[in-house]
Design goal:
With 288 residues, this protein is of the alpha+beta class. It folds into 2 domains: 121 residues, Up-down Bundle (Butyryl-CoA Dehydrogenase, subunit A, domain 3); 116 residues, Nuclear Transport Factor 2, Chain: A (Roll). Helices cover 55% and strands 16% of the residues. It contains 12 helices and 7 strands. A 7-stranded mixed beta sheet has the order 2-1-6-5-4-3-7, with helices on both faces. The protein is elongated. 38% of the residues are buried. About 6% of the residues have low confidence.
Amino acid sequence: MDDPEWVAQRFERHRAHLRGVAYRMLGSLAEADDAVQEAWLRLSRSDASVVKNLGGWLTTVVARVCLDVLRSRKSRREGPLDARNAETIPDPEAGSSSENEMLLADSVGLALLVVLDRLPPAERLAYVLHDMFNLPFEEIAPIVDRSPAAARQLASRARRRVQGPATVPGADLARQRQVAEAFLAASRAGDFEALVTVLDPHVVLRADRPAREVIGAGAVARGALAYSARSRFAQLALVDGAVGIVVAPRGRLLVVLRFTSAGGKIVAIDVIADPEHLRALDLAVLND
């Protein structure tokens, strides 16, 4: 029989890696820890001495557990990135767990977590394991019950969804990004004058929850500053093919800002918070 202490030591060497895999798969630190704990339970019931590649074995177990969780989510049409679960922005002072999850979400990329949540479970698994953890398709294939070639296609489809379609010319995208970055920087700094500078004097802000319309650079800037605390959870992303902002505390999608810009100024902002409207958006990661 395996020495329990020896097995535990071997498992601990892989814990950080397993947690990273599970978090990128599930977007929830609590669920990721549950998946890692399940892997430990299965290992403790197995003969670890006959496992030649313990890291690979544990990664496969965690991946299968995560795939089951994702499929269960889809059948219930819910998930941790659902806007209804993000009504309250977490306070990093509330406890180390919340702070750790915010740091982990930020290291992965809030926009990436939001986009990953929109992928079908098998595509998400193939993309995460191959593109983010360099697992060969020969090892991914049995986890998703596909051939290696089919697993490669899953990852390829996911990659296209993550990167998004090239709907605007590069130069236009660069100008949009510059304007959006200026807006986000001014919001984070609480700089009213800088916000007014990036806004067209007759800018129109339309929000869907609650429904309202605000007109004028000064009024829109004051409204933006009123929610400046949320800006630390914001990140640039492609929204329907143009540069916008996603607000996703701990990776949970809360609000999307869709910008319309012209002449280096923002002329319109759509603030989208309704869960149904959020699900209809075409979101993609904006590469650095």
